[in-house]
Predict the structure.
Amino acid sequence: MNKKTLKDIDVNGKKVLVRCDFNVPIDAETGNITDNRRIRAALPTIQYLLDNKAKVILCSHLGRPKGEFNLKYSLKPVAEELSRLLGLQVKLAEDVIGNSAKELTSNIKEGEVVLLENVRFHSEEEKNYSEFSKALANMAEIYVNDAFGTAHRAHSSTTGVASYLPAVSGFLIEKELEFLGGALENPAHPFVAILGGAKVSDKIGVIENLLDKVDTLIIGGGMAYTFYKAQGHNIGTSICEDDKLDLAKEILSKAELKGVKLLLPLDNHVSSEYSNNGEERIVPSTEIPDGFMGLDIGPKTIECFEDAVKDAKTVVWNGPLGVCEFDKFSTGTKAVATMLSKIDAVTIIGGGDSAAAIEKLGLADKMTHISTGGGASLEFLEGKVLPGIDALQNK
Ligand code: AMP
């Protein structure tokens, strides 16, 4: 179902409450924002509202302050960064629905921006209490959700408030739906999905959903060893979910039944310990020696995966192919980022570690879409309805 966006309503002169995802990393010592991507991602919506003479009221969560005021989780650094990026003074309320917020939002003028304090300073936020949702709604005339990163959570500021105001999506959510939704509903073929990360159990929903849609499913990262063990191979001390062996077998036979090519790594970069300092080897994936753990894919695998994606027309990638926190074992993840940057396909990256690898390599502008929501994009790829999107008005 298509959701109404900002462009479907008249915002001129109106107070518009925008739920953003300003949950940015902040250096605990300096208090500085270390990555402003999420703030930059919200700018098109905010700028559109300013250009169209709206009165802009922003809200967001930051970290996990556990329902009470905590200066460590104040949105003050966000207000400063936004002021710098927008070239105007963003006023920060001292509270969320208290006197300061009420005063600033009742006196707000066209072209002004007020940022409410961290919505998670109230425990009611995550419980989606109607009184709290109403108090947020009372400060505005229109609600815009642009926080894709929290759209999978049914909280007051992402879902509850939409019951009390005309509710539409911002441009960021619109863009996420266009690309993630487009890949699921109407992908250009061949469609290849690359799934990595630690656990099969985290990705099972995505695997199940994608098996009905993709031509090739590539499985790498820690997940792959559960599949190898299920096939009876020795995996040494590699990460494995023993209670998911039957599930892995089921996935392998489902893929075969559906005619989906399921690719597992051919070789692995293994180590005697979970660190940068162990004894290392490159070994076939089916012959991991005792006392060694697979921490990355090997060179033959990289070649095989490259071959599998080179003619793809749609690629969805979620999760690192190895323990990318250790430099030595980030080769596979970097190689996948690089191969996707070179192909002529719609390339969609599902947030988290994969997105970070791409940013680090400076390849972000070579991808079609990098999702701003790790958990939310995963749930979307599982085919789930995200409550923060479901709550918005239909077109
Ligand atoms: P996820 O959040 O599910 O995408 O998983 C990301 C995590 O998977 C990262 O922290 C990686 O270190 C981890 N990971 C990837 N490959 C492996 C592996 N071979 N062994 C252990 N952990 C892995």
About this structure: The mean pLDDT is 96. The longest strand covers residues 15-19.
